[in-house]
């Protein structure tokens, strides 16, 4: 058997989809956002491309003709769309007359969802690919390497390789086996239960009802309506949408089973929507071992209705998750208000390597202080549990 060797690809389309997805299915924490079709759609649609500041490189490790490890890597000239914020680091470089960009990021663009980033058959292959990543960054003279929202196996390998770890906080809901939404509410404190019922009543009293569609049952018209809502939300905040309509067209065509769409209607007219991703669709030897998970992703509204956001993004998806046995709903980045809807704080981790020794030392000291603050924040949030049995 020959020695392992590394290949650099400019597109995931150069890599066999079955080999990539088979490797993903072997991971302890796979997600639909690391599927070959998802990453290919980002590239082919132009959503994550050199034009948008995401120059793709896909790094693979081979032994003979067997794919042993792989990961997406993007060379970037900005820090948008990452959700692990390093603007202060970039400013510090600039103040000292140094260039922070370009930098290298191992991540899924625009997607703050924890999961496997370095797909590997075993720990040795993961360590070898990670070593190759650092060597490639040194050779190409990028300022730094950042692995964002990694799984435990990724983070352990990064720590062994000497990368610095950084923690952030997200909010996830866990299904405790409730028989229905009312049983779930019964486990919340009186104040939280009352508030949720009041919020849901406001939406009903406004004459709003919901319908949902999954996978191939989502019509083109519904996808078009969703995109109107999604794009409008971004533009209302003064930004163009990260993902274009062609990206979602490709999602509907290549991995429809991974999407769940809720549409709010009033007097028969659609007025809002929320899109949820599902972990369905993985294939491979270990795919059946993974529980069904849901990920809150995008929402938008064409009309303003009090509490409609909470109904579309939390209460309707939570009810669906309970009815369909979904293990967990991940609410995405930030959002302390999610705790009132029973999404609890969870620490997520990224790993960082900086080429400049003095800045690496400074960032390491900063991360030590930041980590203490993050832990205090999580402890503080834990004292505010919305569940009744912890009152």
UniProtKB/TrEMBL annotation:
Xref: SUPFAM superfamilies: Acyl-CoA N-acyltransferases (Nat)
Gene3D superfamilies assigned to the protein according to its UniProt record, in alphabetical order: 3.40.630.30
Pfam families, per the entry: FemAB_like
Domain of life: Bacteria
Classification via InterPro entries: Acyl_CoA_acyltransferase, FemAB-like
Protein name, per record: GNAT family N-acetyltransferase
Source organism (scientific name): Variovorax ureilyticus
